[in-house]
Amino acid sequence: MKSTFESIYEQVRRIPRGRVATYGQIASLAGNPRWSRVVGYALHVNPEPGTIPCHRVVDRNGRVSPAFAFGGENMQIKLLEDEGVEFRDGRVDLERFRWRP
To answer: In degrees rounded to 5, what are phi and psi of residue 13?
Structure first.
């Protein structure tokens, strides 16, 4: 049986380049809509940053994490912008860039 973190990482791996998902969205896809904080913990200790694209996960308002574990929020913004994700007033337009599996 998969661990909670493995289930979370499996879902995050599915987010395509140029799209984002919210913590709550990943929590629901991983099996429990109440795991939003757990998703944050899992991403903070991401064992494979090059493989598990944690930079594609944002909060429910489209904001990046100020505690982004791999270089801070500015790095998360840069990684997303490099993929074509646009920001307006510091937020991702979820209507336009949210991943809809």
So the answer is: -60, -25
